[in-house]
Amino acid sequence: MSRLATEFQRLYAAGPDGATRSLVLDVGRPSDWDLLATVWRGAQLDLGLPAPGIAIAGENSYQLWFSLQRGCSADEAMRFFDGLRARYLSDVAAPRIRALTTAPVVPAQVQEDQWSAFVAPDLAPVFVEATWLDIPPGGEGQADLLKALKSISPPEWAAALAQLTPEPQDLAPSTGAPAVAQPAAPTFATATTFTDPRAFLMHVMNDATVPMALRIEAAKGLLSAPSRA
User: The pTM is what?
Assistant: First the structure.
């Protein structure tokens, strides 16, 4: 079994009893990384969860991949997704949001010359105009991205569900909707110096003055570059 398959299995394979361990939030049509970045940061800062994986999924969408140490019921999965929608995506039209409890295959060819792939957080903004790669991503690089991810422990899962499913007294009296503070919008640092080829590619990718096509090519170069770990 390849490293990529091993890491994918570790994070997203169904539990021994077939229970769901992978929860994939897909938002796009059109793609908007700012929306998913708010959820990505909120899941960590507000809910205390490990960072979910990020995928460019084709179909003009991004995905967040949550992994559970133990499986959850279908009801718990829907409570989780509904809570994320209410808290972070309340202004997003329903057809733009998909909640998946069976992990799709990533990376995979989604259309001719279009491949889905896991990406690092600092690369995600570059793909907003084309949420795919035009070549298959390197398996070792994909495995390295998954290796850094952790599954949600049972205590973390229970605490997050409690936050996302408020008690009746926590509802706002004027609207009957959960009273929720909006998380701060994410920011991404811009590289200013570089001393090696990877640093140069990162610099190009993050430079807003560089044409988008060249920034995307720099991001592809980073995805295909061998890991230095």
Answer: 0.76
